[in-house]
Amino acid sequence: MAKERFDFWDPGQTYVLGHQRPDTDAIAAALGYAWFLTETGGENIVAARAGQVGEQASFALRTFDQAAPRLVPSVAPTFGHASRPQESVAPHAPIVEAMARFARGANVVPVVGTNRKPAGVVTPLALTRAWSRPIGGRQVFAKSCQEIAETLPAFPARDRISDHRNALLRSEGDDFLVVDDEGLYVGVTTRGRILDPPRARLVLVDHNELSQAVPGADEAEIVAVLDHHRLSNPATAIPIPFLIDPVGSSSTLVAEKCRVAELSPPRGIAGLLLSGVLSDTLVFRSPTATPRDRVAGDWLAGLCGVKIDEFGPRLLSAAPGLSARTPAEVVDTDRKLYQMGTKMVSLAQVEVSDMQELPELRAALLEALSAQCLRENLAFSGLMITNVVKGRSHLLCHGDHRIMSLLPFPHVGDEEYDLGDMVSRKKQLAPAIQALMEEGFESP
Questions:
Q1: What's the pLDDT score for residue 325?
Q2: Pairwise pLDDT comparison (173 vs 82), residue with the higher score
Q3: Which 8-state DSSP code applies to residue 441?
């Protein structure tokens, strides 16, 4: 066996997970919806996350004594997923051992030393050659497996199959070895399993765009979606449960499903869902907040035994300040990519309790945004800095000069704009940038 796991996901499980840079709502909705699906008859349901847990979500997890969802950094099929562990023979083993394996249905027989390094494989063709060409006059039964072994292409178990597809299509053989990071034997796979590998089963929460999903989602089977953002969903082979509703948070939708099913989440799950509602709605002050969010929040607060007016401000203030992370981390932690026409736009948001650190860090943050634009070929990259105490925001941004020249916000500094009482990336900033993109890049 390999020394460490290469299968980041298990084909026998269904993963409920949010977007690549999970905020509190994405973490809470994943945990809450996984609990709901399990309680309503789902099997092998696992709450997951595609990225690191932020400070605010960590505060909520600690407060309600909950473990973070399992980290699943990619759901792309790998050679490890397509391989099957197959019993090997020692290099010095007589070929009758390999013949016995063929009699039991093996297509190839791996030859592996005590150090777990593969020395080749015995194939039916290799056996035929051994019978026709005795080695040194010895009888064929006296030969060892290593003497007649042939080489096969070997692929690392962690490697994505799609990264090697062209090489595989050019290969003449139908069998391949799979090894771990150190070149040690893991198993055997076939062309058929590589071309049709197991696919991860995903329930997407708090997003429905592949550009925001866990890497490899385009090669996975999406079996359900629960979201409160704009519609930009991937195609599916069959109809699936698909819920997009314009409320303030995905956690609200999970809570409503629980109430309809007459299920009361335990305190820990209820507390996390409440945290998701309060975070995404800024304790109901965001323009995205709806009366349904308030109803869900009150119900969840009763289940977990907290007072919203006391817990809400503590939750919002748990987000780290600008100086607690590197500029690159600030512009990348809570970030969403948007396909706007033919261009890609990145909008990040960071919540702070005051703007005192901004003047000192402005230049470094703008440099990080510029590097992000260059690295990812973005038309525009913005960082929305929201003061959750006063309910006001500033925007730092870098991008195409046509977009920058059209920004309708008061200019207060080098690539810095005052957004006033704008606090919602989804309902206020993103639509505004979308309109500018359509105007700035319209055909002449």
A1: 86
A2: 82
A3: T
Question: Which H or E element spans position 109?
Answer: strand 109-112
For residue 356, give the amino acid letter: Q
Find tokens 């973005």 and name the residue: 378
pLDDT, mean over the chain = 90
User: Which residues neighbour 211 within 8 Å (Cβ) at sequence distance 6 or greater?
Assistant: 337, 338, 339, 344
CA dihedral 201, 281, 334, 199 (to 10 degrees): 0
**Amino acid 197: pLDDT:** 92
Closest by CA position to 84, among listed 178, 5, 183, 201:
178
**pTM (whole model) above 0.85:** no
Residue type for position 345: V
The span from the CA of 116 to the CA of 187, in Å, is 11
Cβ within 8 Å of residue 108, ≥6 positions away: 121, 122, 123, 152, 175, 188
Residue 29 vs residues 2, 34, 292: alpha-carbon distances, Å:
34, 8, 16
Distance separating alpha carbons of residues 205 and 225, to the nearest angstrom = 6
> H or E stretch including 195?
helix 191-195
Least confident of 57-66, 166-175, 279-288, 361-370: 166-175
With vertex at residue 81, the alpha carbon angle to CA 80 and CA 87, rounded to the nearest 5 degrees, is 60
Find where tokens 């005590």 sit.
114
Query: Among 237, 198, 230, which residue's Cα sits nearest to residue 212?
Result: 230
- Lowest-pLDDT range of 130-134, 251-255, 386-390: 130-134
Give the CA distances from residue 191 to residues 36, 122, 218, in Å, rounded to whole numbers and listed in that order.
39, 18, 21
- What does the alpha-carbon distance between residue 112 and residue 393 come to, in Å, rounded to a whole number? 62
Q: What is the pLDDT of residue 25?
A: 97
- What angle (nearest 5°) sits at the alpha carbon of residue 54, between those of residues 422 and 270? 90
The C-alpha atoms of residue 284 and residue 282 are separated, in whole angstroms, by 5
